Structures are given as structure tokens and as C-alpha cells.
Amino acid sequence: MVAREPGRTLADRLNHLFAGMTVRNGQEFSNEQVASAIVATGVTISQSYIWQLRKGRKDNPTFKHLQALAAFFGVPVSYFFDDEVTDRVDEQLVRLRAEQARLTEIMDSSDAQLMALRAGELSPRGRRQVMDLLDVVHRLEQAERDSGPQG
């Protein structure tokens, strides 16, 4: 269980989400990335406003902004003001980070596993094409082994 931090501010909670939700390379989302994604949903928000929220210089955002931030990070809006919800989401984030670390370790440990993970992101047609290509390469290598030096 995640230890409850008494008196967590909006800035604390928002920064915790930034730290817990990273882009594929493991880096935090930038304020600009978050603002751009939110603006794309039709909600007006700037990177400087997000920076002010994260620094605690602004601490009373509109509900619309809280909804947009919550939607971006995939958490309920109550994350920002309900300690029980915050604790529950934080526990899920800990598990998510552990799972991401495990997947990263798997991907780094084996080319075959990395290929399988990437294939999972392909369309069904793309996976069939990859399998066909793997079958051709497998048959070629098998033929090379079978026709190796004979005594």
C-alpha cells in the first residue's frame, strides 16, 4: 500500500502523475506535450498554466481544466481532491511502473521477445506478412544446415 502523504497539494498530485506516467522512452511528459494533447480535445490550456499548477503558483483551476488533466493521465478527476482515490490510483501507478520495468527488461533481454512484442502492435495483415517472412528465413536457414559439409 502507498503511504499516505498528509496535506498533498494539487501541485504534489499533478507532479506525481507526471512522474508516474512517462512517454515510451521513460521520460516525463513535458508541460507542452500535455497542453498540446489537451488543446487537441478542445479545452484551452497553456503549457505555462500547467507549469504554474505544477509549481503551486496557481492552485484553483477550473473544473474543466481538472477534467482535462485527469483525462490525459487516465485518472478520475477526484484524484486531485479525494485522498482515498489518490491513494488507490497511486497504488495502481506503482504496479504499472513495475510492469513497465518488467516489460522493458524482457524487451532488452531477447531479440525474439522484442520481435514478438512489436508484432503484437501490428495489424493482423502485418503479422501475417511478418510470419510469412519468418517462414522463408527459417526454411533458408534450415536448408543451409541440411546441406552443410558432408564427409
TrEMBL record:
Coiled coil: none annotated. CDD domains: HTH_XRE. Pfam families: HTH_3. One of its GO terms (molecular function) is DNA binding. It comes from the Bacteria. InterPro entries: Cro/C1-type_HTH, Lambda_DNA-bd_dom_sf. PROSITE patterns: HTH_CROC1. Residues 45-80 form the HTH cro/C1-type domain. This is HTH cro/C1-type domain-containing protein. It comes from Actinophytocola xinjiangensis.
